[in-house]
Structure formats: C-alpha cells, structure tokens
Amino acid sequence: MSHTTIDIQSYKNTYQKLKSAIEGLSEEQLKWKPAPDKWSVTEVLSHLTDHSIVFSFRIRKLISEHAAQLPPFQQDPWVSESRANEGSANDIIDVFGVLLTYNSLLFDRLPADAWSRTGINFKGEPVTLLQSFQSFIKHVDTHLLQIDRIKNAYQ
C-alpha cells in the first residue's frame, strides 16, 4: 500500500521516454559525437544513469539524515573516465531502468511528510526531496532534447 501522496508516474515514465528516444538508432548513431568535446547519445545515457546513481544516494540521505549534505558530482570526468562511449547504450539504459524501479518501490513506501525533508545542496541551498524528485525529471527531459539535437545533427 502506497503511503505517498506524490504521483511518481512522471518519474517512472522517464525510462520509456529514453527507450523511445533511442529506438531504431544504429550503433554508429548511438556513438557519434557532434564535436570532440560534445557527448554522444550513449554518453548522454551514461550521464543520466550516473545522475540516477547520485540521485538514489541523495534520496536516502534526505530521508535518513537531518540537514543532509547532498553530494555533487563531476559529470564530464564521470563520462569520459568511465569510457562511456565504449559501452552499450542498451546496457546503460537497462541500469537506468533498474535504478528507477528500485527508487520507485522506495517512493511507494514513503510517508507523505518524507517529501518535505530537506538537505543542503553543493551551493549551500536547502533542497527538499520533492524538489530533488522534480529536478530529476526535468533533468531527464533536458537531456531528451539533447538526444534529439544529436540525432538531428547526425549525417
């Protein structure tokens, strides 16, 4: 039985949106970069999965610690040093989906007041679980637009 009053369907939908965005793309299209300093579709997916890992950690800090310090992460080195573009886009997106499912199960168990629990972000600003949740969804939507730009630039 769900204790949450937050509709988490938009969070769950991010996985299918990403799957749809890469549907039918060849391996070459998934790994193609519009410029040497820009990400490929595979690298965008890797970044979103990395972000999901960090978000998963932040969720647990927010619900379990008073005034939790929410960690930042260095997205570009995470993508480049993990050699993300050498990975499989399908494997990467599968991990994203598993994390999404795991977090969704947690969200379903949370009491309504958990969504107002607050931590401190790397800028020193207070952030609630609800704000982090909404920011995650917006972040995925921003990168879906990036994936569309990469696909449109591929020749």
From TrEMBL:
Domain DinB-like span(s) in chain numbering: 12-147
Domain of life: Bacteria
Pfam family, one: DinB_2
InterPro entries on file: DinB-like, DinB/YfiT-like
Protein name per its UniProtKB record: DinB family protein
